[in-house]
Specification:
Layout lengths: L2 H15 L2 E3 H4 L9 E6 L5 H20 E13 L2 E13 L1 H10 L1 E7 L4 E6 L12 E3 L17 E9 L4 H20 L2 E9 L2 E15 L2 E8 L4 E9 L8
Antiparallel strand pairs: 1-7, 2-6, 3-4, 3-10, 5-6, 8-12, 9-10, 11-12
Length: about 250
């Protein structure tokens, strides 16, 4: 590997390792003001440009958290040698009228530039940001419990998403959040269709996992970066559907 690439990798890893973030970025679930969302931007020469792009992205994510219909699925090929991913095709539809509303009426709560990206916190009207949530804190080095064990309670359905470290840190967080939403859709409703084929002692199975589900009032609860392995995690939740009457 050329020395220039090695030095670049060292700089990227060390910059994330010593990175501080606003508390609202790492612990958005501690905000109690209705829906809020974080938007991302790569660093531009102009801070105003970075803030504008990040705010527009925050409004888009706020719209997704308000309502998103996810359809599509994944195919897996299971053999005695293991399970192999064959591909996926997911589509997401959002409420565009709500997006226009938050673009014009969304509350600009706070923004922060980490040097590697700009993040912007936006919320619905009436949302207020406590002073302590603006504090800059270091991302914990110890892996949080939710990475391995999702929270369990009767009020919410939880899911997490992970993504590797890309050249732009914002791309890693965006990808992790997207994966978390798709995993949340799987948790809400999963239709499993299997076509099984067996011959003698060997067996094969092609599984198609189809999803068609509406997500409403989704919250990003926590973010965490595993600097040792170069992985980024996002934990999300949404209110659990009400049980049918009579149950």
């Amino acid at each position: 590997m050329p020395m220039r690439q090695i030095l670049l990798m060292i700089v990227l890893v060390s910059s994330v390792r010593g990175q501080t973030y606003p508390r609202w970025f790492l612990e958005p679930g501690s905000l109690h003001c209705g829906l809020s969302a974080v938007g991302y931007s790569v660093p531009f020469f102009s801070n105003h440009s970075s803030d504008s792009v990040a705010f527009a992205d925050a409004c888009q994510r706020l719209s997704i958290q308000h309502f998103a219909r996810i359809t599509g699925g994944e195919a897996f090929w299971a053999t005695e040698a293991g399970v192999y991913w064959m591909g996926s095709d997911f589509k997401m539809m959002t409420d565009t009228s709500y997006l226009y509303t938050v673009l014009s009426e969304g509350v600009r709560l706070d923004s922060c530039s980490t040097g590697r990206m700009t993040v912007f916190l936006a919320g619905e009207r009436g949302c207020d940001l406590p002073v302590y949530m603006r504090e800059l804190v270091r991302c914990p080095r110890t892996q949080p419990n939710w990475v391995e064990n999702l929270p369990q309670d009767d009020e919410f359905i939880y899911a997490e998403g992970a993504a590797p470290e890309y050249f732009y840190e914002s791309s890693s967080w965006q990808a992790a959040e997207k994966h978390a939403l798709f995993n949340l859709a799987r948790s809400v409703r999963l239709s499993l269709e299997s076509l099984q084929k067996s011959t003698g002692l060997s067996g094969q199975e092609i599984r198609n996992e189809e999803i068609a589900v509406a997500l409403r009032n989704v919250q990003v609860v926590r973010r965490w970066a595993d600097t040792r392995r170069g992985l980024f995690y996002v934990l999300v939740r949404m209110p659990a559907p009400a049980s049918p009457k009579g149950n």
